[in-house]
Design a protein that fits this description.
heterodimer; A: 393 residues; alpha+beta; six-stranded antiparallel beta sheet; B: 371 residues; 2 domains; three-stranded mixed beta sheet; 10 strands
Chain lengths: 393, 371
Amino acid sequence: MSLTTTFAGRRLPLLWLAFRTGLYSVLTLGLYRFWQKTRLRRWYWSAIRPGGLPLDYVGDPFEKLLGFLIAVVILAFYIGVVNLALMFVSFSLFQGNYAAYLLSFIGVIPVWFYARYRARRYILARTRWRGLRFGLAPGAWGYAFRALLYWALTILSAGLLWPLMTFQLEKYRTNRTWFGDRRFTQGGRWLMLYRSTVWLWATLVPMVLTLIAIGMGDIVSIIVLSAATGLTAIYGLVYYRVDSLRRLTATKQFGNVTLTLNARPLRVLWITLSGNLIAGLGASIPALFMLGLFLQLQSTETLVQLGLENAPQLLRDPATWLLLALTAMSYFAIFLVWGALRHAFVTLPIWRHYAEALVIDSAEDLDQLRQRPRDETTQAEGFAEALDVGASL
Amino acid sequence: MRATATHLDGTTGAAREVELWLDAEAGAITGAGLHWPLDEIRVLPDIAGGDLLILRLRGDPLQRLILRDRAWLAHLPHAHRRAPVANRKRLAGMAVAAILSVLLIVFVLVPTMADQLAAYIPPEGEQALGEVTLTQIREAMDETGVSPIGFCTESQGRAALDKMAARLTDGAQLHTRIDLHVLDHPLVNAFALPGGQVVLFRGLIEAAETPEEVAAVLAHEIGHVVSRDPTRNALRSAGSIGVLGLLFGDFAGGAVVLFLTERLIEAQYSQKAEAAADRYAIDLMRGAGLPPEALADMFERFRKLGGEAEGFVAHFQAHPKLGDRIAAARAAGVGADRGAPLLSARDWQALQAICGGGARPQPSASATTSQ
């Protein structure tokens, strides 16, 4: 028995949901963002329907807030005290702040990977399908350690061992992922991912040609060929991402159940480019409006007094007040419009594409699976939220 | 009313197709061994597609009924009632604890550490810290967005300024040399930075009536340098800016950081630090044979000036007993040794034109009338 996946969501309701919740987030100084995230996830999850049954997101905004607060306490200590100490050492020993920034940045890297794993664990623990919970076994520090190791190998090998990193990290995650009382396993070998790098290697051709053109000094050829290099490189990255995911999905096992992902790299690239273009155009409307207001502010010569000390006097003028308020509003509107349009024109079509590309084969024994216990995950995704680790939702 | 639905029992992966009755009189949905009272049924919110009605029971987090028809929604009295917030006390406790510990870190731990560390930072490190901070301030104050605001370096004015600084500091014991800058900006203000950097704004030099007034401000800022107030301040902000940025997320965070950079210029030192700097300034002026009451003169006139001088006034107003300070400065002036005049008329003119402007523009009249 094969189960195909449908995607039920449409752009307009999502656009409205994303815009409305984004507005609430701005109005509550960011507090509502935990509710915004929860609501958007509920929406996306319920749109994805493998075998006709929707995913169910049961995360709670309050637990996200709590997790964020826990993370803030720990990170505030790190950023405040550790950074101050680093700053002191850096200025004392190196007469500059670059050492402090570098050390501080290096110190955050393992926490960043830790946060990504914790966020994944939280999201899986709050995701259900057919009434059963998903789960990710604890192991965030182990993940951070491996991520650092494989990143180091990738960098030292000038990128040649990138597929090794992709495979080993995916294997670490997959082998700790559960659905109900059954665990996933990642099969396959890391060498199979070299096939996914084909378009990255293909980038070498226009690159070499560009170098030759530079040698010959032909401006037109240089421009055309370097554009070709850029485009091929972008396609190479997208192709690697999609094709490696395809291969890794095909080699995952869940008892007898197997998965197939028929995602197409060109489609993903097109959605990414066109969607971001639309979002950029949409966001440029409030941006241009703000620019106009800004010029207006300058022309009324208030900017001279807008120096730093003259605020009280400036604020006595109601017209200036209005201008400032409008400027602030259009500033936030840029982010709101950009965020909402990106949901409707990038995130939704990409998720729809991946969802509709997913087929679950030999799904006969899913009925026999049992529920797994609830994973409290008190930190929720607090670190990911505080560090902004770039988890897509 | 009857309908078919998918029942998820929450204990197995089975998705059972069931025939259900909605019995309005009995007030429940029944069928296939299920009995769900209508007033305990909740509808899952934010469901995409608009084609499904997904139901759950108030006390049961696991079971689900998925209906492909939304008609029954009208019969569910508490469909959209929210579940009570679990762990409310724990949540409130954590929130308070988080806010308290952030406050503790920003207002106690970081300042205490900064105060301790400021005494141990070697001179070269302090110098570098001051240079970095000065660049940050010059970039933050630039309004054109092209380049940081520039230094004023007319050679004759510079020579006059150096003469003034030398007269003040000759007799003084300083742990660092004083590095004096004039910034080309109309603000009537001055501030000190780590590593003995003292910055005067063009506006301040232009607004002063006598060289002694400039010297008095200079002496006050040297007082801050001697007690290492700027070093403490810079270390503190290095610690606390990041914490506050963390709390407010992306685009609000940037604004907070900018705001704090501005605070560096304001340099809100403690009342104690301001009073100590004043005492030091008075001693320094006396030691150099200059009238200490110039500090009071400068301050009083700038307060009347209002407008462009508000920052300066705010800076000095960190001390609430302002009248006392003026009185102290005046009292210190009584019977003080008067040395030679600080600058010749020509030197003073050169100093006022240190930014290249030949004429001496008066502070705007509108600012004066605003008082």
